[in-house]
């Protein structure tokens, strides 16, 4: 009798395994609210910025700050120089687009090269682009647009765009999916392009320092594919960071309603959008019935409801006890920064730093402190201090 019950139990277990519809990796539990991080305080360094988007620190302790309407500002001796940096390429300020990310070349000390991502064109036909120029005093000289999306889109949504350097001085650059329905492209919703290797929409690119396709890119020999593509199936990556010790590249991207994601980015991989998502359409129904599929990467975090992730930093300093090796992800909607504790490639804990304004960027400065840019209220640069 006992043996028969055991056999029945075993059969039931086998049936359960056989017909289980759970995805391979298991559903990614949403993280809505999380506990407050302790041991920190915020102080405003400077304010009066208009929609600041990104900050890059210069070797002399000053910094460059982008403002989305198309200005590059110089912060010198902890004060904004009134006159913006001159010599920028033509920038389209429209909706979510404008001047976005700024990074310095790894050999900036020697070559003074500054890289900028921005929207260019017109409200009806615009592209995400990458420019490079040499910083001489308060002006960019020898400015070249070294990459632009091969195809124009219409409207003011989903431009991306963040940059991060790889150790071989190549550059990862994110480009958004082009916008929500009914924004169209080639007879369908433009967001479907995130799954099509023929366009740059909804992709992570890997470029040489001159803006060309990296020769090791995963689809470089695939006929019809854009050679710049590094990974695909992204909606709109707004934060990008690299762990210099492990080499892991982390990105956070927006869903529509819910389903914002943290992903570990690897060459050639498909991150699912819009075929696989935890997101809802703004009008209510699911974007997809599927949240996971073999051959597509599951997010490490599913932020539902949306926190609207922005800048992302991997913290390597020692200014705050216990924070080394953590990710810090800005949140536009909740006016927070999320502290994400990792164990290798796994997320093991998440906390929040409540700031109270939309956080657009999070960066670690050479002084070892974390700095934020807020783009609501009186746009500010904020320093996080241990308390
Ligand atoms: Ca995804």
Description of the structure:
The chain is mainly beta and 387 residues long. Helix content is 6%, strand content 40%. The protein is built from 2 helices and 26 strands. It has helices at residues 2-19, 108-111, and strands spanning 40-49, 52-57, 63-67, 71-76, 79-80, 99-104, 113-122, 125-136, 139-148, 163-165, 171-175, 184-185, 188-189, 203-207, 229-232, 237-242, 249-253, 260-265, 301-303, 309-314, 327-331, 336-343, 346-354, 359-364, 370-374, 379-386. The strands form 7 sheets. The chain has a 4-stranded antiparallel beta sheet, with no helix packed on it. A 4-stranded antiparallel beta sheet has the order 2-3-4-5, with no helix packed on it. The chain has a 4-stranded antiparallel beta sheet with strand order 6-7-8-9, with no helix packed on it. β25 and β26 (379-386) form a beta hairpin. The N and C termini lie far apart (65 Å). Mean pLDDT is 93; it is low at 12-24. Calcium ion is lined by residues 261, 271-273, 277, 299.
